[in-house]
Every structure is written in structure tokens, then in C-alpha cells.
Amino acid sequence: MAQTEKKGGLLRKSSASKKPLKEKVVLMYDEIFTTEDPSKCNPRFWEELFLMKVNLEYLEGKLEALDGEELMKIKDNINCLFQHCIQALGEEHPIRVVNALQTLCALIRGVHQKNKSTSGFDIINMLVGFDKAELCMKNLMESLDSLLCAEGSESLKSLCLKLLLCLVTVTDNISQNTILEYVMINSIFEAILQILSSRLSRREHGYDAVVLLALLVNYRKYESVNPYIVKLSIVDDEATLNGMGLVIAQALSEYNRQYKDKEEEHQTGFFSALTNMVGSMFIADADEKISVQTNEAILLALYEAVHLNRNFITVLAQSHPEMGLMTTPTSPVPATPVTPLGTTPPSSDVISSAELPLDADVQTSNLLITFLKYSSIVMQDTKDEHRLHSGKLCLIILTCIAEDQYANAFLHDDNMNFRVNLHRMPMRHRKKAADKNLPCRPLVCAVLDLMVEFIVTHMMKEFPMDLYVRCIQIVHKLLCYQKKCRVRLHYTWRELWSALINLLKFLMSNETVLLAKHNIFTLALMVVNLFNMFITYGDTFLPTPSSYDELYYEIIRMHQNFDNLYSMVLRLSTNAGQWKEPASKVTHALVNIRAIINHFNPKIESYAAVNHISQLSEDQVLEVVRSNYDTLTLKLQDGLDQYERYSEQHKEAAFFKELVRSISINVRKNLAFNTLSQELLLKEFSTIS
After folding, report:
1. Could you read off the pLDDT of 541-566 as tens digits, one per residue?
2. Contact 140/179 with Cβ under 8 angstroms?
3. Which of 6, 10, 13 minimizes the C-alpha distance to 24?
4. What residues are paired with 320 via a beta bridge?
5. Dihedral sign, CA of 204, 207, 212, 217?
6. pLDDT digit string (tens) for 609-655?
7. Within 13 Å of residue 506, how many CA atoms lie on the same side as its CB?
8. 432-472 tens-digit pLDDT
9. Domain check: are 535 and 676 in the same one?
10. Which residues make beta-bridge pairs with 600?
11. 684 shares a domain with 601
């Protein structure tokens, strides 16, 4: 018996020489693409069409193949098809609803592909007609809202979300997508919240729902009142906010797991054997090959939640078992294989502490820890554009957290101690830290560790100035909180001081190269003022008096770097050039550091001479420091504990516009409507034979 083959809507027998036969649904599409009303000859045409399996490829291809004039000739039939799709969404038979949803996706994408150069208004006219647009879109949004909120098929809910994602991402710049005006007027915000608050719905559709919400929030956010921004900012339902946090934690945790798996695979492979033979000269090159696709969409959702909703801050600290370590509960396999956008979501929901008792041997985690681990991975390599954007967004999120009073309260809480295993970039001059040696500490220590790690590992020719500025600002904001609330944090402050001094050394060593691209004095001033903050207020927030002594010891020990910096800024501030003013600000900021150096150095030299010691130990230097504080005179510097609060609209609008554009393209590219096979649907909707 001859094999039957199917391709592009054509059926043919491989052994036959006859003209290929077309599927019935393709013949029906062809009738729509004529100027005649297809229901004239067949009154049941539309009823029959939605019982046929949709051929997405053929329908989209047919639309794209037409030129503008040809498309205008069949506009009435396209409008008619669109309206009948909306009508079919109210049908009782799920197969018709599924086919209508898939047809709408093909129509929206096909018409837009053809009309890329035209405005959104033209696309609305082509799809539905201006005269009926408002009513049709209202009916469409109400139908989608009902399907999402109903206790019906999970497959239908999945398709509804995919249709909405298709609608939102049909243009690269979502703010130019005029169709979204109807999504603003006919809000589906409550439906999205319902999905996130229900454990079952969240497991099946949480990822798509969160990404959809993040995109909708970014529609014309600077130009008009966006109802999704307003509504998201006032959500206070704990179950909903926790649900959103769990979905985000799940996606970030999956990324972390994939990276860890690749890292382990990498270490046990060929490069591991090679580096064991010839030393560690190849370690940096080898590590560059560890790459997992970043997930900016889910990161954007986290940013919007943190930035817009103060109640969400509590979700960051909500404890749950570490996702990579917990046992996954058995759950039914979803009827719909959902293809996510950018990552694969774990097979089950993240279990909150209320749903799963904590094992004493299992490390507890929370969204903030998962996010910090994610940040430590993506911030390692900023040469790649996506990772650079991800790294910047991570630092923006941390900036918002560092400014929040409640977030700071739990970051610095001595009763909330965690062991946070951040990923550290392999470097020749340091050994890899053993995970087991990590102490349990307040979460702010992990944030500071992440900042120190970034400072130490990114001093390179392609200097990420913007990220360094954000990094120093985060440290400054945390210090301001500690000073204000007199929090004495037991942290290895020396690591931070050492990293900051090495950064100043790097700026000076590469003055010519860096000044050609950046104003390095802005960053130098911020670093110097961090030291001024410690000098002026350190006695109120450093853990012990000896910590304050150690600060002076580090400044004196590394005095050559501060002397060189002073020489550099003095040279540039006395010349009439573009750097005169910024350099002179650094000159003035160095006054107390220079006073400390000039006061203690002669005392140390005198002590060494009197006691006939060529090289003083640390303890001996500290003894000189402690006995000569009373004769030290410092100037009071104003504004050290003040900072400018984060503002998205004024400073970050261009970044977010480009980021959302990139996410929109990526979501559209990864959107799969044909993940639902007809066999699976028939099995699920067994009422239809």
C-alpha cells in the first residue's frame, strides 16, 4: 500500500502521478482568499471551518504572500473570519474554541508580517474594520478573560495566554502596537492574578502569565496612564504576590541549575584534564564556554514587581526549601506540553513553607537568594550584550532593594541568617572557595560579597563604567542605612576596602585609555566618598573599635595609591581642560584621607626609629594609630550620607525601551502554538467523538 505524505497542506500518494490533493481546511482557506463571500455557496462554511484542524503554516504563509492591494481586496473576508473566530470562542465545544484561538494567532501574525511598515491603525482595520473594532475587541477580551478564569481546560488557558502574548509582541516596539489600547481598556489583570494565586494554574501557566504582565506594564508607560501599572502597584493579596514570587524564583532557579550542571560537566570534561596537566593558564578561556541563555523577561517581571509594589518586598524574604535540593512531589503530567520563553520551567510548582514541611538537613532559601545567585552568574561575563543587559537590570533591582526601608530591615536582620553560595569567576591568583565553609550570615553580607566580587573581576580594557557606578551606589545606600539605624554589621570590611583601593589603582594605571571613553573622576569621587563615610561615621556602624583601627591601617598601608590619586587629580584640576572641575572635586574629597596619612606616617616612622625596627608588624602600626587619635584633626564633610533616589523615567527610559524590544522579539520567536497536537486535544476533550 502506497504511503501517504503530507506537506504544506497538500496530500499526495508517493506512488501516484496524479495532481496532489489539498486538505479540506486548505481548500476552505483558499475560499476565504477570494473576493466572494465563502458562506454564499455553503451556509455552514464557518461552522465547518472551526471543526477542522488549523494549518497555521499555510494560513500565515498565504497572508504573507499577498501584496497590499490583494490584501485590501479580501479585507471583508478577513474581517469576517476574525469576527467568526471571536464568536466561536463562546461555543460549548472546546475543539472549536481551540481552532478559533489558533486561527486568531495566525491571522494576527500573518497580517502584521504583511503590514510591518504600516501603523497599528491599518492592522486593526485589516483585521476587524474600524467600524466594528471597539465592539469586536471588547468581545474578544471578555471571551479570553472568561476562558482564563473558568475552571475548564488547561489547554484552552494555555492557548489564551499564547494568543495574548502573540497580540502583545506582534510589533518589536510594543508601544507602537495600537491593538494594545483595547487590552488596556478591557483589562485582563484580574485573570492574570487569579492564575498566579492558584497553585494548579500557576504550575501550568504561571510563567506565561508573569511574562505577559511584565510586557503589558511596559506599554506606553511614560506617555499615558497604564492601568496595569496602577493595578500592579496596589496589589496587596498575599497569595497572589507569593504566587508571582514563586514563578519568578522557579525560573531563576532553573537557570541557576542549568548553569551549575554545565559547570560540573565542564569541570569533569576535557578541559579539566588539560588544566590538570599544564596548570591553570587556560582556566579563564575554558570557563567562557559555560553559557546558558539569560532570561531577561522574568528579570523584567521581578524588576516591575519590586519597583512598583512595596508589598512585594516581603515576598523576597519568604522562606522555602532550596529548589535544587528538595524532593519534587509527584504531580499529574500536564495535558499540554508548554514551551516556555527562554527557559524550561521546572515540572512542578515551587513549594512554599506552608505546603511542604522543612527538613532540618535542607538549606532554606528565598527569592532574594535565588536572585543573588542568578546575578552572580550573569554578572561574570559582561562582554556579551544580553548578559550586559541582564547584569545592568540585576544592579537596578538591587538598587531599588537597597533604597527600601523594609528590605533593609530584613537584609540586616541578625535572626535571618543564610548560607549564600555565590558563583565566583575563576581567577589564577585565588583558589575556589569551598561551599561547605560558607558561614550563615544576614543577607546584606551576600549583597556586599556580590558587589566586591564584581569590583574585583571587571577591571579590564572594555571597562563597564555604568555597572561600576551602580555597584558603588548600592554599597553606599546600604552604608547609609547602617549609619542611620546604627546597625553594626559583622562583615569582612577589609575585603571591600581592598577592592576599592585596587579599583582606584586601576583607574590611575589606565588613565589615558579610560579618559578617552569615560569620566573616571565621577567613579573615583564615589569611591573616595565611601572611605570618607567610613572615616566620618564608621564608629556608628563598624562592628568593633578595632574595625575602625583596621580602616586606618588599610589607608596608611596603601597610602601610595591615595598619594598617586592626589597627584593625578591635582595635575588635571590645575590645567584648564574638560576634566578641571570633576578632578578638583576629587582633590577636595581627599582632604581627610590625606590628613590621616600625613598625621600617622611620621608617627609610625618615629616609632620604628626609636625602637630600631626596620619593618613594623600590623599590631605595632595599630598600636601607633590607637595612641595618636587624639591629636588627629579631620574636617566635617557634608552630604556623605545623602543620595539621589532611583528614577526610571528620567534616567533609564532608553534602556528599558531597548530591553523590552529585545524581550518582545525573543518572546515572539519562541512562541509555539502548535505544541497542542490534535490527538492530545481529542483525548482531553473526550466528549467530542
Report:
1. 999 999 999 999 999 999 999 999 99
2. no
3. 10
4. 365
5. positive
6. 998 888 899 999 999 999 999 999 999 899 999 999 999 988 899 99
7. 20
8. 655 557 889 999 999 999 999 999 999 998 899 999 999 99
9. no
10. none
11. no
In one-letter notation, the amino acid at residue 418 is F
Widest CA span in the chain: 114
CB 501 within 8 A of CB 554: yes
String of DSSP letters for 463-518: --HHHHHHHHHHHHHHHHHHHHHT------HHHHHHHHHHHHHHHHHTHHHHHTT-
| 109 and 142 part of one domain | yes
Rounded to the nearest 5 degrees, what angle is found at the Cα of 680, between the Cα atoms of 674 and 681? 80
pTM value is 0.87
Same domain, 641 and 666: no
Q: For residue 586, what is its C-alpha cell?
A: 576629587
Q: How far is 485 from 287, CA to CA, in rounded Å? A: 42
The C-alpha cell 514563578 sits at: 247
Q: Which three cell numbers stand for residue 319?
A: 522562606
For residue 115, which of 85, 75, 147 has the smallest C-alpha distance? 75
pLDDT recorded at residue 153: 81
Is there a single domain that holds both residue 524 and residue 624? yes
DSSP 118-174: S-HHHHHHHHT-HHHHHHHHHHHHHHHHHHHHSSS-HHHHHHHHHHHHHHHTSSSSG
> Which structural domain, as residue segments, surrounds residue 154?
24-186+658-688
Q: Which residues pair with 94 in a beta bridge?
A: none
Residues 6+ apart with CB under 8 A from 284: 426, 427, 428
Measured distance CA(248)–CA(242) in Å, rounded: 10
- Look up residue 472 and give its amino acid: I
> 441, 499, 443, 448: which is closest to 477 by C-alpha?
448
Identify the CA nearest to 322 among candidates 435, 420, 416, 226: 420
671 shares its domain with 567 = no
- The three-state (H, E, C) secondary structure of 35-72, written as one string: CCCCCCCCCCHHHHHCCCCCCHHHHHHHHHHCCHHHHH
Same domain, 678 and 543: no
Count of domains forming the chain: 2
**Integer angstrom CA distances of residue 586 from 91, 511, 526, 531, 583:** 72, 15, 9, 12, 5
Contact indicator for 324, 257 with CB cutoff of 8 Å: yes
Kind plus residue range of the DSSP H or E element containing 5: strand 4-7
How are beta strands 4-7 and 21-22 bridged, if at all? unpaired
Other CB atoms closer than 10 Å to residue 244's CB: what's the count? 30
Q: What is the DSSP string of 360-392?
A: TTSPEE-HHHHHHHHHHHHTT--SSHHHHHHHH
176 vs 121, higher pLDDT:
176
